[in-house]
Amino acid sequence: MVEQMILASECDVANEVICAPADVKELFELPTIFYIGDIAITRTIILIFLAAFIVIALLYFGLRKGSVIPSKFQAVVESLVQFVRKDVAEDIIGPEGVRYAPYLTAMFLFLLVGNLFEITPLINFPITSRMAIPAFLAIVTWLIFVIVGFYKNGFSYFLDIVWPKSVPIGLRWLVGLIELFSVFLLRPLTLAVRLFANLVAGHLMLTLLLGSGAIFIWNFADAGAKSLVGVAWFAFGLGIYLFEIVVAVLQAYIFTLLSAVYIQSSVHPEH
């Protein structure tokens, strides 16, 4: 993270309080690492595959033996899988949630690993701070609950949204219009933006505070008394660093939980 700040721009420690890059996109992406044909392979692409590989490795090595007396590693992996299956899939969707548990589990673990990259030394970059990742997962979730809605309920799934019978007839057109807009547009949009915005905000704060703090401390000879500002920024950044661990876990859980809620609304629209 500090390396990103140093590479992003030269800092005038004598006059600037916080060192910021000329282009904020430099905080999220370094130049192309190599090419495969015409495809540019960047750090983000590598980290996406790394996150997927970590999830596959966790599930494979954590569940392959299924010992009666599990090791600590097996117990942790089984607890994560059971948590998503029982407390999210089945508790939210119902008995039919079992069939959606693999998708929800894979998504939760991928988001958890991708989010935790933010506070991983030598990486310090959450892949979910690139809008394409939350947007793709949100679209997949949207496709699942829309397809399931029509499969389970036929065309009445659409009619119940645009003309809700539980609402007084004078308000049905208004509520139906709101629900139509919400279900088919706002749900995937808000699902993606919520995750993206939280991780971007955390990444920016950590990068600016820790990066600026380190630069001021390293340049004590030029900054003089202002280097004390760097100490304050760095200390504040460490506090946010711990807070971002909670944010990373919480945002992965919220995204998975809302995905289950949306699927449930299609499986059991009467609720």
Describe the structure.
With 271 residues, the protein is an all-alpha fold. The protein has one domain (2-29, 103-267). Helix content is 70%, strand content 2%. The protein contains 9 helices and 2 strands; from the N terminus they run H-E-E-H-H-H-H-H-H-H-H. The chain has a two-stranded antiparallel sheet with strand order 1-2. A hairpin with a 2-residue loop joins strand 1 (34-36) and strand 2 (39-41). It is globular and about 75 Å long. The chain starts with a helix and ends with a helix. The model is unreliable at 1-9 (pLDDT under 50).
Mean pLDDT over the full residue set: 82
What number of domains? 1
Q: Given the structure, what is the number of helices? A: 9
- Structural class comes to mainly alpha
* % residues in beta strands: under 5%
Shape: globular
> Span from first to last CA?
46 Å
Order of helices and strands: HEEHHHHHHHH
Computed Rg: 23 Å
Strand order of the largest sheet: 1-2
Helix content: over 70%
Low-pLDDT parts are 1-9
Largest sheet data: 2 strands, antiparallel
Oligomer: single chain
Number of strands: 2
